[in-house]
Task: structure prediction
Amino acid sequence: MRKFKHRLAGLENIKGMELDALRQVLANAQEELRRSQQELLELRHALDTTYNELAAMRRGTVDALILLSLESYTGVLRDQIRAVQQRIADQREALREAQERLAEKHKEKKVLEKYRERKEEEYRQYVEREQQKELDETAANIYQQHRTV
Result:
Protein backbone atom coordinates (compact mmCIF):
# COMPACT_ATOMS: atom_id res chain seq x y z
CA MET A 1 0.00 0.00 0.00
CA ARG A 2 1.39 3.36 -0.93
CA LYS A 3 1.95 6.01 1.71
CA PHE A 4 0.26 9.38 1.66
CA LYS A 5 2.49 11.98 0.04
CA HIS A 6 1.40 15.57 -0.16
CA ARG A 7 2.76 17.34 -3.24
CA LEU A 8 2.73 20.78 -1.61
CA ALA A 9 4.16 19.76 1.77
CA GLY A 10 7.38 21.66 1.09
CA LEU A 11 5.46 24.78 0.16
CA GLU A 12 3.33 24.41 3.29
CA ASN A 13 6.51 24.20 5.39
CA ILE A 14 7.89 27.32 3.70
CA LYS A 15 4.64 29.19 4.39
CA GLY A 16 4.92 28.11 8.02
CA MET A 17 8.45 29.47 8.23
CA GLU A 18 7.33 32.71 6.58
CA LEU A 19 4.54 32.98 9.14
CA ASP A 20 7.02 32.51 11.97
CA ALA A 21 9.28 35.20 10.50
CA LEU A 22 6.36 37.61 10.12
CA ARG A 23 5.27 36.93 13.69
CA GLN A 24 8.79 37.89 14.80
CA VAL A 25 8.69 41.06 12.67
CA LEU A 26 5.34 41.93 14.25
CA ALA A 27 6.67 41.32 17.76
CA ASN A 28 9.70 43.51 17.02
CA ALA A 29 7.49 46.28 15.65
CA GLN A 30 5.30 46.12 18.76
CA GLU A 31 8.37 46.31 20.99
CA GLU A 32 9.78 49.30 19.08
CA LEU A 33 6.43 51.07 19.38
CA ARG A 34 6.29 50.35 23.11
CA ARG A 35 9.81 51.75 23.58
CA SER A 36 9.00 54.89 21.61
CA GLN A 37 5.83 55.44 23.61
CA GLN A 38 7.83 55.07 26.81
CA GLU A 39 10.41 57.55 25.51
CA LEU A 40 7.60 59.99 24.67
CA LEU A 41 6.26 59.72 28.21
CA GLU A 42 9.71 60.40 29.64
CA LEU A 43 10.23 63.41 27.37
CA ARG A 44 6.83 64.85 28.31
CA HIS A 45 7.64 64.36 31.97
CA ALA A 46 10.99 66.14 31.51
CA LEU A 47 9.24 69.00 29.70
CA ASP A 48 6.64 69.34 32.46
CA THR A 49 9.39 69.35 35.06
CA THR A 50 11.30 72.01 33.15
CA TYR A 51 8.17 74.16 32.79
CA ASN A 52 7.60 73.90 36.53
CA GLU A 53 11.20 74.93 37.21
CA LEU A 54 10.85 77.87 34.84
CA ALA A 55 7.66 79.00 36.53
CA ALA A 56 9.29 78.81 39.95
CA MET A 57 12.35 80.74 38.76
CA ARG A 58 10.26 83.47 37.16
CA ARG A 59 8.57 84.14 40.48
CA GLY A 60 11.89 84.71 42.18
CA THR A 61 15.08 86.44 41.25
CA VAL A 62 17.16 84.26 39.01
CA ASP A 63 20.10 84.67 36.72
CA ALA A 64 18.87 85.46 33.20
CA LEU A 65 21.40 83.06 31.69
CA ILE A 66 19.93 80.12 33.62
CA LEU A 67 16.44 81.21 32.58
CA LEU A 68 17.48 81.39 28.90
CA SER A 69 19.17 78.01 29.02
CA LEU A 70 16.05 76.40 30.53
CA GLU A 71 13.86 78.00 27.86
CA SER A 72 16.27 76.75 25.21
CA TYR A 73 16.13 73.29 26.80
CA THR A 74 12.31 73.32 26.58
CA GLY A 75 12.62 74.05 22.86
CA VAL A 76 14.93 71.10 22.44
CA LEU A 77 12.53 68.89 24.39
CA ARG A 78 9.58 70.00 22.24
CA ASP A 79 11.58 69.18 19.09
CA GLN A 80 12.45 65.76 20.49
CA ILE A 81 8.80 65.16 21.37
CA ARG A 82 7.72 66.03 17.81
CA ALA A 83 10.38 63.68 16.42
CA VAL A 84 9.29 60.84 18.70
CA GLN A 85 5.62 61.46 17.82
CA GLN A 86 6.50 61.19 14.13
CA ARG A 87 8.49 58.01 14.80
CA ILE A 88 5.50 56.57 16.69
CA ALA A 89 3.21 57.38 13.75
CA ASP A 90 5.67 55.65 11.38
CA GLN A 91 5.96 52.66 13.70
CA ARG A 92 2.18 52.34 13.93
CA GLU A 93 2.01 52.29 10.15
CA ALA A 94 4.76 49.65 10.00
CA LEU A 95 2.91 47.64 12.65
CA ARG A 96 -0.33 47.83 10.66
CA GLU A 97 1.49 46.67 7.51
CA ALA A 98 3.11 43.80 9.40
CA GLN A 99 -0.30 42.74 10.70
CA GLU A 100 -1.72 42.80 7.17
CA ARG A 101 1.18 40.73 5.80
CA LEU A 102 0.77 38.26 8.65
CA ALA A 103 -2.96 37.94 7.99
CA GLU A 104 -2.30 37.36 4.28
CA LYS A 105 0.32 34.67 4.94
CA HIS A 106 -2.02 33.05 7.44
CA LYS A 107 -4.72 32.87 4.74
CA GLU A 108 -2.26 31.35 2.27
CA LYS A 109 -1.20 28.72 4.80
CA LYS A 110 -4.83 27.97 5.63
CA VAL A 111 -5.57 27.33 1.93
CA LEU A 112 -2.66 24.88 1.77
CA GLU A 113 -3.84 23.15 4.95
CA LYS A 114 -7.34 22.75 3.52
CA TYR A 115 -5.85 21.32 0.32
CA ARG A 116 -3.74 18.85 2.32
CA GLU A 117 -6.76 17.82 4.41
CA ARG A 118 -8.82 17.24 1.26
CA LYS A 119 -6.03 15.13 -0.27
CA GLU A 120 -5.63 13.17 2.98
CA GLU A 121 -9.36 12.42 2.93
CA GLU A 122 -9.14 11.29 -0.70
CA TYR A 123 -6.19 9.06 0.22
CA ARG A 124 -8.04 7.60 3.20
CA GLN A 125 -11.01 6.79 0.97
CA TYR A 126 -8.68 5.21 -1.58
CA VAL A 127 -7.09 3.05 1.13
CA GLU A 128 -10.51 1.99 2.40
CA ARG A 129 -11.61 1.03 -1.13
CA GLU A 130 -8.42 -0.97 -1.68
CA GLN A 131 -8.83 -2.75 1.65
CA GLN A 132 -12.44 -3.51 0.85
CA LYS A 133 -11.37 -4.96 -2.53
CA GLU A 134 -8.84 -7.19 -0.77
CA LEU A 135 -11.46 -8.33 1.74
CA ASP A 136 -13.93 -9.02 -1.05
CA GLU A 137 -11.30 -11.01 -2.97
CA THR A 138 -10.39 -12.98 0.12
CA ALA A 139 -14.04 -13.71 0.87
CA ALA A 140 -14.64 -14.76 -2.74
CA ASN A 141 -11.61 -17.06 -2.66
CA ILE A 142 -12.72 -18.63 0.60
CA TYR A 143 -16.21 -19.11 -0.79
CA GLN A 144 -14.83 -20.73 -3.95
CA GLN A 145 -12.60 -23.05 -1.90
CA HIS A 146 -15.53 -24.20 0.26
CA ARG A 147 -17.73 -24.64 -2.75
CA THR A 148 -15.26 -26.90 -4.58
CA VAL A 149 -14.65 -29.03 -1.52
